[in-house]
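DATA SHEET
Item: assembly model
Revision: 1
Owner: S.N.
Input lines:
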Amino acid sequence: MKQDQIKRRTLLRAAAVTALGSLVPGLSARQMPEAAPEDPTKVPGTPVGRLGTRSPFEQPQKKASDISARSPLQDFYGIITPSDLHFERSHNGVPRIDPQKYELLIHGMVERPMVFTLKDLKRFPALSRIAFIECSGNFRSGKTTMTPQEICGLTSQSEWTGVMLSTLFREVGVSPKATWFLAEGSDAAVMTRSIPVRKGWEDAMIAYAQNGEAIRPEQGYPARLFLPGWEGNTNVKWIRRIELSDQPFMTREETSKYTETIKDGKIRQFSFDMDARSIITYPSYPQTVEKGWIEIRGLAWSGRGKITSVEVSTDAGKHWHVATLQEPVLDKAHTAFRYGWYWDGQNTEIMSRAVDDTGYTQPTLQQLVNARGTDMGGYHLNPVTAWIIQRDGTVLFKPEKFR
Amino acid sequence: MRWNLVNCRRVNISVLPCLLVIIICCNRPPERFSFGRPATQREIDSVNISITPDGKGLPPGVGHVAEGKALFIAKCAPCHGPTGTEVPQYRLVATPNDTTHAKAIGNYWPYATTLYDYIRRAMPFNAPGSLSNVEVYHLTAFLLYSNQLIDSNRVISARTLPNIVMPARKWYVNDDRHGGNEVR
């Protein structure tokens, strides 16, 4: 086993060196903050600059593995993920694409196959929408010393701006007989997913901006597919081609991967919607708390609509209380919640569960196991997440065994 | 004087909705903007590498298991192991009596065409897009053979590949959840 792991690491490192470059640039350059002056009113401050900076006392970071980097959910305030902390998952690195040379081809079952430059895309009516994107393989467990970032940091939220795909569909004259389209990226994985045309007409977007600036390379610069509420992988980044068809293409990422085993040996495919979910981000590991009033805080979201309520339990699930939702409560969007709690200093467990406007309630891991079997795959797991509060004020994740 | 005022009002009231209608009409986006340019067949063909399960899009050429084996040892084994079983995370082979619970081509992939498509677009990982169409056929043949899905003398081509029955195919179901008060 150990040898296998070494082997894997070695091959990945080889792959990384050849294809990805250094996987975690900047991490080694993590600096200690310069000492602040004794009295900041007695020395001139830093002059104005061309780019804003984060206070050196704040060092939120993504947590990178070989294939992905997770958002530090525990460090967030409000609902927008700072663009440089947006989670990352790619299948063979981040490509460097010249915006002058960028083109999007739309062809297949259309009246007029067309090519759009980035400039063309920006001439169309622009829309903005705040919504989350979440990787469907977003649940880790196994030990008590895990942060929200480590458990489910593959979700982030931005304001995305772009042209609605329906506008482009009209432009090319999509055939009424087309039922699926292939979205293809121009990365080294030439990522492809088949998407029902219905989603294209409904609310799909070709996004070229994120949080007020051009989309970041890690998120698909210069343009990506954005499918509100749908599993991250379908939001094909660096999109170069859309092919309309009357059948799905059954690419590797919708068969070998991004499918989940459920009961009776069945394998579920095209699980697009991200199920409602929530997590308490404060208090969470490795934070510590003191006896007295604690504002429990967290994030809730659903790929099917709006969050209608979040319930919080402070006694290991025996009783549930309605948390306050922070406006704005948006469709298919991270929603902040809070619940004021007086902690009496005794051992306990706290947890949250989200309810969305379809009436779906976030399940426990046990409910998921009961529904899908012990062989259930790792995709689309959205269990209630519990934190153990110990008498000394330390907070630990409560891992549950399911395999 | 009085009459005038009334008349004025009447005119205003009747013209206003008309004006509104005109304003709304002129602001409605057109059906087409005529941005972008028509794509030529040549440029479509140069990037259209997709393949459907019925074999549409498969290029000409034939693949043989023996040639595929040699290519695999040279170009794929460094990462996947000489038989495609040695690296658990990137295991490519799972035969029907496999006991490792690994999900691989033989026991999890529903379509053989996917194998051709994926190798051509993404492998080898460190040199994607470097294989010729025929090399991809050879490798596809070798991997199907290694997973005990074809005999060693079977030739793989646009004609034969879509007909290969993948054992896992029968297990696939579409997601039919729509939210609501149920866990599935």
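QC remark: Chain A has two domains: 83-142+155-261, 277-397.
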